[in-house]
Every structure is written in C-alpha cells, then in structure tokens.
Amino acid sequence: MEILKLDNISSGYSNKEILKNVSFKVQRGEFIGVIGPNGAGKSTLMKTVTRVIKPFKGQIYLNNKNIYCFNFKEIARRIACVRQESFISFSYKVRDIVMMGRFPYQSLLAGESKEDVKVVNEMLKLTDCDKLSDREILNLSSGEKQRVVIARALAQEPEILFLDEPTSYLDIGHQMQIFNLLKKLNKEKNITIISILHDLNLAAEYCDKLLLLNNGEIIRYDLPSNVLDYKLLEEIYNTLVVVKENPISNKPYVVLVSGNRQNK
Amino acid sequence: MKIKNKIILSSIVLILVLLIVVFISFIAGPVDIPFNKIISEGIDSFPIARLRLYRILLAIIVGMSLSVSGVIFQGILRNPLAEPYLLGVSSGAGFAAVLSLTLGLGGLTFGFELLPVVAFVGGFLTVVLVYNLARVGEKVPVQTLLLAGVVVGAVFSSLIMFLVSVSRMNQLHSIIWWLLGSLEVVDKNQLIAVSIITISGIVFSMLYTRELNILTLGDEPALNLGVNVNKIKKIFFLIGSLLAASVVAVCGIIGFVGLIIPHIMRLIVGPDHRILIPVSALSGAVFLVACDILARNLLAPAELPIGVITAFLGGPFFIFLLRKKRRIFF
Q: Which CATH superfamily is domain A2-78+158-262 in?
C-alpha cells in the first residue's frame, strides 16, 4: 500500500526552483535512502514533504490525502523529522525534549497524560536514552544528542520518519548503532523510513530502495544494486569509483579512487 | 519534583517575599505612615499612604510586565540579548511623547490624559513597523528583525534628540522626566489600564507555554512537532509588544528589568516556560518594588529616577553574566 506519493512536484525558495517535476511513490514499511551530490535538492525534498516550504506546483499525498488537508498537529502525528544535528541552545532536560514529541497529542489546556509519559519512557528505552533522561541536553555528546532527537521523533509515533543525514557527525560505531536502531524500528514497528544520506555504503547496506537526485530531478529510483552503478555514479559525482560487492552482506560497495591513481 | 509542584512551591516563596518587600516599601519613606490608623479608618483619609500604595501596585505590575515581555522576546527570538525595548517600543513611544510635549499637547485631557495614550500608540506602531520591515512573505528572519529594531530605534532616538534641542526651557523639564521614567501614579485609571493589559497578557502567554518551549528548538523543528509557528510567533509578538508599550506609556523607560530578570530566573529554575513565566513575573515585581524603595529613600525627600537604580544594580550583574560562558544564558 502506498503511504506517500509525490505528483509532479516543483519546489524551491522564493524565485529559485530547485526540485523540478519530481514524482515518486513510497510503500508503507519501506526504508528509502535519498542520495545525490550537494545541491541536488535532497533537503529541499525533505522540507517540501514535511510542509516547511510550499511547493510551487504539484501535489503530495499521504495515505491518498493531500498533505495540506491535515492541520499542524495531524501532520505531526504522521510525519516526524530528524535533522543533521538539531541545534538546541536552551538547557532542557532530555526527558523534557522527548516529551515535546508528544505535543501533537496534547490539547491546549490538558497537561501530560499517562499515555504521554508511557510513550516517552518507551522511546527513551528503545533509543537507549533512559540513563540520560535527567541530564541536560547541552552536556551530551553528539551521538547521545542525536539519539535524543530520534527519541523525540519516535514519541510522535509517526508513520513516516524523515532523516537528514542523521549520522554525519558520528563515528562508525555510533553510525551503525543509529542505523541498526532505524532498521529495527522499520522492521518491528513498520515505520516507513526516508533518509537523506551522503554515505553511499550505508545507503546500500540498510535501504530497500535508493532515490538518486541530481539538479533537482530524479535520476534513478530503484534497488541499491541498480542505482549504484559505477558509470552512473562517475557521471553524477564527477569522480572515479569502483563498485564491488560487500562480502558479508552481498550488497553493493562503493570504493573511491583517489586523484593520483586516476592519472595512472 | 513534578513541574506543577515546582511552580506552586516557587510561587508561594516568591509571593511571601513580595509581601515582605511591599510592607517595607509601604512604611519606608520620608513621611511616616500610621499603620494602625489606616487599618481602623480606611486608606482614603490618608492621601500620602494612598499614593504610596498606588505606586507600589504600579511597581508590581510594571515589574511583572517587563519581565514577562523579556522572557517572551528572548524565547521567540532565541537571542540572549533580546529585551522588551529591542524592537523599538521605547524609542517610538518616547518620540511620540516628546513630540506631543514639544507641541504643548502634554497637559491635554479628554477625561483621560492624552500623553500616555499617544506614547502607547507610538510604541506599538513602531513595533508593527519594525515587524513589517523585517517580514519576507510569511517569514520573519530573526537577524533582520533585530537589525530593523536597532535601526528604527536609532532613527527615533535621533528625532528625540532633535526635538529636545529645539524645545523651550519650560518643556525641557517634563521631557527629561518622561524619558527618565517614573513610577508615580498620576491617574488611577492608568494604573487600572496597565494592570488589565499586564494580567491578560500573562494569562494568554501561560496558555501557550508549551508552544513557546518548542519554538526555542528552532522554527523548522517546531513546525515538524505540530506547532503553527507563524501564528504562535505572531501571538507572542503581540503580547510582548503590548506589555512593553503599555508600561512605557505609563512609566517611561525603565531599563534592565526585562533583560536580567529572565536570565536570573532561567539560571535558577531552568528554561521551561511553564515555570519561567510565573516566577519571572513575581520576581520582576519583587525587584522593582525593592528598587523603588531605594529610589524614594536614598536621597529623600528628593526622588531618584527608578531607571537609575535598576540599571545601576542590573548593569554590573549583566557584565558578570557576560563574563561567563555564552551557554549559561539559556
């Protein structure tokens, strides 16, 4: 069943069109990686689907309903976002930050319900943040902060989780930790995950399908083994690569070729 | 401790402190107040006591108003230097007031005094001007807003200086006194008006504290968490500006309260606006009543402008804050 459908979307900022006539569908429960060079329109795509910017033309459907037919809280109960590193400058406690994820379920005058507390505790545990819950967010490491932001997004109990390079500041250990968590959520809770990724190998390893963007257009939207084609990558990223197969997972593996070797 | 208990406990403590400060302020002064007689005969037969009581009430209201306005602007602008006058309220109101004083309209009344109304309108219109100068479509970028506020403020300040330089000697005194700020209650109706605006402003902002908390994460995260960012920001701009404009209209410019009280309270109770707004309101009241005790008694029977005391106490404290790391602000 398709959960998200973009129909001929053009989008961008004031007068500058970044995305051009983009159409694609996402099935419920899929794990999609969005890849492409800098300036390809990946973040614009995420902002457009999450209603941060309005498309110039085209329609976006969530469960066959136009996303602009939902009110602010309704959309937040269905789509949650995790950004590169959320800039939090106020010294809130971790639990308070995660509780903010329950905002779309709260009415103006009612306080936190028992259900809210239950969900927050569950998500703290799931993301391994339960030991951090009384710490101040500003005193955490980047990896811990990112887990808290994911916990907050999960507290929204979304159907779709959007991530914008969630692990770009993290070491390989924490990268794997976060992606293993995402895979688990994807499998166990059937959350549809759409993540922008720069690391092509992470993308190949974890995603069901990859969406390759360049200059605001979809170049290819297919299985990782069909998207990570060395000729295509060399053309789009303008560099030499070799695509091999990861011996453990049998997924495609992209090897970079450095400049002085290219001349040989 | 649960947030509700934390709010109740800290409010009780602050209300007790406020009562003590109010009592001291009431009995301290160049004229002795016969406290026993007032209780038995009623306050109306003691005009000095009545004036002093009004003045204390005004100090409470103004302290609350400025502090909450400061909390609001620091929250929605996510800027530690934000304060109630940042968007040009004070210079706009000041210009309007000085202009009408220079034109000799200062003493005009229509059943109410004209001057504070003119100042209120001038202050509020200035914020509307600044807001619209900075607006790009639906969005109001923070940096542009701050710059627009500073620039518009500077223009109005220069106009004030121009008016001061061309005004006549007999007008100069009232202009200077207006600009210095004072808690003297000339008209009971002004006290009532500013009280109504302050109390309703605080009640309204208490309704949206959760949204304000989420807004401090940034506009885009707030939007994705289900907050109608543009609407909530507009509501808080309106409340913050109305609070500041009404205070400036009645008391002139009283600096530093709206800047330092929110910072001190954030250091003590944390950044959660559900508790930050009520405790800032109460401690702002305590601070201003206490400053007023000093203003009335240091050089008695002469009176110091209240702004001198607040800035003299607030300035060094603010420098102390600046010397610390940036992160302690929030």
A: P-loop containing nucleotide triphosphate hydrolases (3.40.50.300)
